[in-house]
Amino acid sequence: MSSLKTLFAIMGLSVAAISSAAAGSVDMKGLYVDGSVGVNFTSYSFSSIHSTTFSKAGINVNAGYKVNDYLAPEIGYTYYGIGLNGVDVALKGMIPLNVGTYGASIFGKVGAAHLFTTSGGSSSVTDPMLGAGFAVGVSKNVDWTVQANAVIDSFSNYSYSTIGLVSTGLTYNFG
Question: How far is the C-alpha of 43 from the C-alpha of 16, rounded, in Å?
């Protein structure tokens, strides 16, 4: 779990560094789509053994609707690179930052993900999903994003477990 906390701390420091760069803002509402590539991670705790592993490449795509500057319902699909897929529904909370020509934001997600296997038989589970990241506007309609999304307690034989994806990609805002 400490590796996951370290990851979120690094993401927070990155946002702080970007925030001190310049001034400006953009107000984009409406439909958006994003795609990203990254690496999956698994983290579990069993008795006194704790482990976090980063292993295979994965992809994530999402579609959402920015209701206002602070809130967006979102649906997504993630391939974790290990024969495991996830479909999720989440609420995305955003904090706009008045930086750069096209703005930036930090965000968090909370929702549920349905995980299912694509090889070696079929099994599925639905569990809580959390996410966090930041977005930096690179043009009027395009943002560069870095995010980490995690599905919590997806394996019942461990006292605590997480599978997720740390990724970077682009968001296109139709608004």
Answer: 27
Q: Give the CA distances from residue 32 to residues 28, 55, 69, 175, in Å, rounded to whole numbers and listed in that order.
A: 10, 29, 13, 8
Q: Which helix H or strand E contains 5, and what residues bound it?
A: helix 2-19
Q: How many other CB atoms are there within 10 angstroms of residue 10's CB atom?
A: 12
- What is the distance between the alpha carbons of residues 112 and 127, in angstroms, rounded to a whole number? 6
Helix (H, G, I), strand (E, B) or coil at 141: coil
Bridge partners of 164, per DSSP, are 41, 150
- For residue 46, how many C-alpha atoms fall within 13 Å in the half-sphere facing its CB? 9
State how far the Cα of 122 lies from the Cα of 50, in Å rounded to an integer.
28
Count other C-beta atoms under 10 Å from residue 121's C-beta. 5
Query: What's the CA gap between 11 and 32, in Å, rounded?
Result: 22
Task: Determine which of 12-21, 65-74, 86-95, 166-175 has the lowest per-residue pLDDT on average.
Answer: 12-21
Q: What is the pLDDT, as a whole number, of residue 47?
A: 59
Those residues with Cβ within 8 angstroms of residue 3's Cβ, 6 or more apart along the chain or in another chain: 41, 43, 52
